[in-house]
Structure formats: structure tokens, C-alpha cells
Amino acid sequence: MRLLNVHDYSFRDFHGDNTEPYVITSHRWSNDEATYKDVRKQRNTASVGWAKIKGFCEQVRHTNDILQNLNDSTVSDWLWIDTACIDATSAAEVQESINSMFRWYHDSIECHAYLADVLPFSATRGRAEVLGDFAESEWFQRGWTLQELLAPRTVIFFTQNWEVIGHKCSQCDTTSS
Fold it and tell me: Which residue segment(s) compose the domain that 27 sits in?
């Protein structure tokens, strides 16, 4: 399993059960995703995919800051995102990742689900409007979403501006419809 460091965007490979605590991601792919090679070589950093990776890493760092202030040791310096942590040019690596996916989601500290099509809260858009967008999100149309929702202990949903919508237990009524 290859993980991305949330501070310096470097990769580290972990083998077997010998992994550091990590946050795993869930998202819809765009046409401009940052690949493993893009991140490793720090190229195409203005792409939508890079912005998404930076957003995920920023959320993990923010969560770490809160946990450290609470003297909670459940912090993580590591992130797994499929677009960058899997070398898509290696068929063997892609197949191994597909076969390991449910376990990886299950073993994560938590899953951050980025819903790019859910508009942020604003003075004119309250919780009801955001939850309406949430219920209609393209994220729920993906085949992979089921394991990404069920396997992790915690899933935190984010709007396109990285505002927290809620977590999977708080959204049970919305997700069941």
C-alpha cells in the first residue's frame, strides 16, 4: 500500500499490516486528476486533481491540529487517494489495489468523501439546501461508493468548498433515500 504524506506530498510504501494510521478518500474522478507520476514529480500542480489532493491533505492536517489540542493521539500524517497512490500504468498494481480496496477502507482511521457537486453553505443556502444537494450527489451514482460508505468506521462528507456536511451516521436518513 502506497500512502501520501499530508505535509510534504511524498510517498511511502507499506507492506502487510505494517502501515501507519491513515485517512482514506472517496471522490468522483474528474478529467484532470493528478496521477501517481504527477504527484511524485510535483508536476501539473495547478490541475483540479492536485487541488483536490491538497484539500484532502489540508483537512487531515486540520483534524490533526484539533486532535492534538484535545490530547488525542489518533492523528495521521498519511493519506490514501486512488488517483495518486496507485500507479495506473502498472496492471499488477491496479489489480492488487482493487483486490485490497475493501480492507484498505476498513482499516483506515476515517474516510473523507469529497462531493464536488454539493454547493457550499451560504447566507442564502442553509442546511436544507445543502442536504438536498447531498442526497442528489453524483457520488451516490458510483459503483465503488457502497464499499467506501460501508467499510470505514467513519465517513465525513465535504462540500465542494471543503465544508463538513456531516458523517455517515448523521446522514443515515438522507443516504437511505
Answer: 2-176
Q: Which residues of the chain have pLDDT under 50?
A: 170
Determine if residue 14 is left, alpha or beta; phi over 0 gives left, psi from -120 to 50 gives alpha, anything else beta.
Answer: beta
Q: Which amino acid is at 126?
A: G
Answer positive or negative: Cα dihedral of 157, 127, 29, 78: negative
Three-state SS letters, the chain: CEEEECCCCCEEECCCCCCCCEEEEEECCCCCCCCHHHHHCCCCCCCHHHHHHHHHHHHHHHHHHHHHHCCCCCCCCEEECHHHHCCCCCHHHHHHHHHHHHHHHHHCCEEEEECCCCCCCCCCCCHHHHHHHHHCCHHHHCCCHHHHHHCCCCEEEECCCCCEEEECCCCHHHHHC
| Cα–Cα distance, 32 to 44 (Å, whole number) | 9
Which of 16, 82, 74 lies closest to 53, judged by CA?
Answer: 82
Residues found in the chain: 177
Q: Note the pLDDT tens digit of each residue in 148-160.
A: 999 999 999 999 9
How many domains is the chain partitioned into structurally?
Answer: 1
The predicted pLDDT at position 72 comes to 73
